[in-house]
């Protein structure tokens, strides 16, 4: 896992190389860097951005449903906001 304070572009590169989907509250800068990352021909396993209104209980349920009802490949190069 990258250390706290790692820049968004470096997190995206780490994700690409290590195959991890990111769950983040960073709705401000991550979407911009995500788009730049894809435009440069790079890839990411996926990003789940958490909306402000989500409680921890709701988030746990959402992440469980994502894990249970889908394949990781479904999120390849996608950024989704939860709840929808």
Structure description:
The chain is of the alpha/beta class. The protein contains three helices and three strands; from the N terminus they run H-E-H-E-H-E. The chain has one domain. The longest helix has 14 residues. The model has no long low-confidence stretch (mean pLDDT 95).
Record keyword descriptors for this entry:
84 residues; alpha/beta; three-stranded parallel β-sheet; 42% helix
Q: What's the structural blueprint in terms of helices and strands?
A:
Blueprint: H1 8-18, E1 22-24, H2 30-39, E2 47-50, H3 56-69, E3 79-82
Parallel strand pairs: 1-2, 2-3
Helix pairs in contact: 1-2
Short note summarizing the structure:
The chain has helices at 8-18, 30-39, 56-69, and strands at 22-24, 47-50, 79-82. The chain is α/β, with parallel strands linked by helices and 84 residues long.
What is the topology, as strand order, of the major beta sheet? 1-2-3
Order of helices and strands: HEHEHE
Radius of gyration: 13 Å
Which structural class matches the secondary elements? alpha/beta
Shape summary:
globular
Biggest sheet character: 3 strands, parallel
Please, how many helices?
3
Mean pLDDT: 95
Q: Please indicate the percent range of residues in DSSP E strands (runs of 2 or more).
A: 5-15%
Number of strand segments = 3
Q: What's the number of structural domains?
A: 1
Distance separating the two termini: 27 Å
> What percent of residues adopt helix (DSSP H or I)?
40-55%
């Amino acid at each position: 896992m990258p250390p706290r304070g790692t820049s968004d572009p470096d997190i995206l590169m780490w994700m690409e190389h290590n195959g991890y989907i990111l769950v983040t509250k960073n709705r401000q800068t991550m979407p911009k860097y995500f788009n730049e990352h894809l435009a440069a021909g790079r890839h990411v396993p996926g990003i789940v951005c958490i909306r402000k209104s989500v409680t921890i209980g709701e988030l746990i349920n959402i992440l469980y449903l994502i894990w249970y009802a889908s394949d990781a490949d479904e999120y390849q190069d996608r950024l989704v906001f939860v709840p929808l």
